[in-house]
Amino acid sequence: MNHAAVRAVSLHSLNRQRANIVLSNLLVDKRVMTPDEVSSQERIFEWNGVLRWKDSLPFAKARIGVTLHNLLKTLAPAHIVTGAMRDGGSILERLVKIYSHENFLVWYDSPKRTAYIVLKGQASAKVQLKAWALALWGAHRFGKQYATGASPEDLLQLLEMTLRDISSQWDDSIERIKAAGWDIDIANLETSSGSRIRLTAKSLQAMSTTTE
User: Fold this and answer.
1) Distance between CA atoms of 40 and 203, rounded to whole angstroms?
2) pLDDT band (50, 70, 90) for residue 73
3) Is the pTM of this model over 0.70?
């Protein structure tokens, strides 16, 4: 095995830590860091799923490839006695509408400071990177705007605004990331095999019913 070649490929792919560094610099400063520049900022040991803005302290974490059931649990905490989930259906419907043109769903659980990324069946490496960008920037914006907490409606509006801002520049951003030397076709954000979903009107109705 050519270990030098394997290492070269690895260093040019965007794992979670590198994605944090590249995306946080790109989204605000419009600067794309090269693999060599990023390698000088990488930590040898990094917490799994941590979100950092540039070189800041960790401010949140993200989970990618989560199941729809786990997303529903954070949208609608289970009843203490019955274990049934309530009140999550309406939020899920809003999320599905917001992300109707995307191959992912993203939600931010503010009390846990955790972003949940649900991937649809056609989620390519580029799609996963866009979802991570939304989780990163959305969580960062939340910390700046809602230091004392926010309602579900506040969160939905923030995520929708952030998605719109990212989408408006995403095609150009992808080309610039690629031009800087990154291999954007390698899916390296999931550290284990994640879940994929297929949303239909029937399945959404079934999910919503279980949360009532």
Assistant:
1) 46
2) confident
3) yes
